[in-house]
Amino acid sequence: MEDGPLTGLRVLDVSTILAGPLGCQILGDQGAEIIKVEHPVNGDGTRGHGPSKDGVPLWWKEISGDKRALGLSLSAPEGAGILRRLAATADVLVENFRPDTLEGWGLGPEVLHEANPRLVIVRITGFGQQGPYAARAGFGTPAEAMSGFAHLTGEAAARRPCGRSAWPTASAGSPRPSASPDGASAPTPTRSSWTSSAPTPRRWRT
After folding, report:
1. What does each of the 206 residues of the chain score in pLDDT, given as a tens digit?
2. CB distance 102 to 124 below 8 Å
3. Which terminus of the chain, N or C, has less C-beta within 10 A?
4. What CA–CA distances, in Å, run from 137 to 49, 98, 190?
5. Phi and psi torsions of 19, nearest 5°
6. How many angstroms separate the Cα of 69 from the Cα of each of 64, 95, 116, 117, 140?
7. How far is CA 159 from CA 106, 162, 173, in A?
8. Residue 140: what are its φ and ψ, rounded to 5°?
9. Which domains, ranges and CATH numbers included, belong to the chain?
């Protein structure tokens, strides 16, 4: 890992599949130390997803570079205790379980902030931590459809010229370890992220 603007930042990647792991990978590309926490038996779902080259899943290779992996069963008291100890040494924790999952394991923000008041917790869900859709799982297809992204991009043979307003995957301006004495919990619903990143049709002048 080369030095970068986030060198010295420790990130716990407790997320799965794509949105969280990819964001953590971008932070790692900027120099942050990434500790990837996976289920000790099944591992991250991306390990067996998508095409492979020489027996190596390409999606997994894309989002796991320079990460140190650790197998923990967070639903077990011992695994939860190890994560709390890790959280005491980290600057950022990223998770994308359904709402109240961490709380059910004794790992909610209040507990983690007791171990480390400065910890920044990023919570990625399909529809936020509260509201009528909060308990629903969030994957790419529903987010693309409900945000209008799929309609605006259209079929491959009929795509229109467009401009993109934003792509809020991760920020290279994450706080340095000494930047703030206070931690935070940042809910991040993927539906609204897709809405903000949906292409905006333009009228092209000749």
Report:
1. 568 999 999 999 999 888 889 899 999 999 999 999 999 998 887 888 788 888 888 888 888 888 999 999 999 999 999 999 999 999 999 998 888 999 999 999 999 999 999 999 999 887 777 788 777 777 777 778 888 888 887 776 655 544 333 234 334 334 444 444 466 666 666 555 544 444 444 333 33
2. no
3. C
4. 18, 7, 10
5. -55, -50
6. 9, 15, 22, 25, 25
7. 47, 9, 33
8. -60, -45
9. 10-201 (3.40.50.10540)
* Tokens (6 digits) for 109: 């923000």
Interatomic CA distance for residues 75 and 96, integer angstroms: 15
Side-chain-side CA neighbours of residue 180 (13 Å): 11
Residue with tokens 């994560």: 83
Cα 67 to Cα 132: distance, rounded to the nearest angstrom: 36
Distance between CA atoms of 106 and 52, rounded to whole angstroms?
A: 37
Q: Measured between alpha carbons, how far is 92 from 27 in angstroms, rounded to an integer?
A: 10
Long-range CB contacts (within 8 A, 24+) of 65-69: 65/25, 65/28, 65/29, 66/1, 66/28, 66/29, 66/34, 67/13, 67/24, 67/25, 67/28, 67/34, 67/35, 67/36, 68/33, 68/34, 68/35, 68/36, 69/36, 69/38
pTM (two decimals): 0.73
